[in-house]
Amino acid sequence: xxxxxxxxxxxxxxxxxxxxxxxxxxxxxxxxxxxxxxxxxxxxxxxxxxxxxxxxxxxxxxxxxxxxxxxxxxxxxxxxxxxxxxxxxxxxxxxxxxxxxxxxxxxxxxxxxxxxxxxxxxxxxxxxxxxxxxxxxxxxxxxxxxxxxxxxxxxxxxxxxxxxxxxxxxxxxxxxxxxxxxxxxxxxxxxxxxxxxxxxxxxxxxxxxxxxxxxxxxxxxxxxxxxxxxxxxxxxxxxxxxxxxxxxxxxxxxxxxxxxxxxxxxxxxxxxxxxxxxxxxxxxxxxxxxxxxxxxxxxxxxxxxxxxxxxxxxxxxxxxxxxxxxxxxxxxxxxxxxxxxxxxxxxxxxxxxxxxxxxxxxxxxxxxxxxxxxxxxxxxxxxxxxxxxxxxxxxxxxxxxxxxxxxxxxxxxxxxxx
Length: 418
Ligand code: NDP
Known about the structure:
The protein is an alpha/beta fold. It has helices spanning 5-16, 34-39, 41-60, 74-98, 178-190, 209-221, 272-275, 311-326, 359-366, 381-384, 413-417, and strands spanning 22-25, 102-105, 108-110, 115-118, 129-132, 136-138, 142-144, 155-156, 170-174, 193-198, 225-228, 232-238, 241-246, 251-254, 256-259, 263-265, 298-300, 344-346, 352-356, 369-376, 390-397, 402-409. It has a 5-stranded parallel beta sheet with strand order 8-15-9-10-11, with helices on one face. It has a 5-stranded antiparallel beta sheet with strand order 18-19-22-21-20. Strands 3-4-5 form a 3-stranded antiparallel beta sheet. NADPH dihydro-nicotinamide-adenine-dinucleotide phosphate binds next to helix 5 and strand 18.
């Protein structure tokens, strides 16, 4: 159930091992690839590339390039993004069909330990389709969540922001996590005046403190009005846009307000209670180390389990489930999953790449550690005029001389850390 990263991978791999597989996706072909392809990693990265051009044009003057400033055609960017995503949806469809998976367009609901009903609304048939299966995998992902406050109806989420019309000259971003920091950077780069509010003392809670401080400072240098220990009290319509009142009594006028205040599992209407599937906070599907829920025939992977919400994690979990249920290909031992040392990248400007422990975590775990930290201005910026700086940091366990953490803020940090 669910044609995102985890669901598609599990369906294909299970079919390749000889299982007869049906994949239910409420969005049909257009939903294939899930959050990552449609409203997450992929379009976000495309917009981030777009945003980097503004900076590159600006910096080119120091290298002798002359000419009028270029102008963003927001409509063209959106259109090109849409066609690329449609192409990717098609690639996913071909992969599924090619591996013998049957795709059913419709919302699926569990009726029991081995039974699913798919509403098939997407096909306009109106006749629900009831299927029974030996194994059922829940891979329905998550969705953005917005806290309650007066004027909440004006809040946008990352689901809508890609298609914003018109382009927001002034954008409010609320939150200090991955999504908030990435979109603050992207829209700032594309030309919006961005105000970012974060309720805590520094963005990217959970990351290494040096990374947080350094990134926060770089984002401010790029022009983002980053306000820490700040939050929204209310939003109301104003003559020229939206008037946002802050809890500290200040106010700011913007054209659009993006809330990136966390994500919750997609479990509404799934029939989890009816099937007896145990849930945790925010409805997350609880699973054991084999991704089995409290009902042995029902498994779950990815964001719906609300553990580590990253595409490569969902993909790996899907492979582990398939190996566990249908066996690994001959000659290979069944995969297992470790959640330590999961690398991740934040596509801010400059970007963040990180793997392993933060300095604080390593200090707690090992006691004596060494920190190797370097901070510099890249050679390119001698002529570019940019004041952007790069920070790299290695955290080393002193006793074994083993690197236990690697953190970077700077151009291509994700690729470098990878
Ligand atoms: P996060 O949980 O990372 O961040 C949510 C942010 O919103 C935090 O700063 C949090 O503050 C803040 N917040 C939560 N509730 C409120 C509230 N009521 N009022 C004000 N602020 C609030 O979630 P995201 O939505 O950014 O992203 C979800 C997940 O998706 C990420 O954790 C990540 O796993 C994944 N992701 C990965 C990306 C990548 O790999 N590049 C990109 C985008 C998403 P506080 O810190 O105080 O709790």
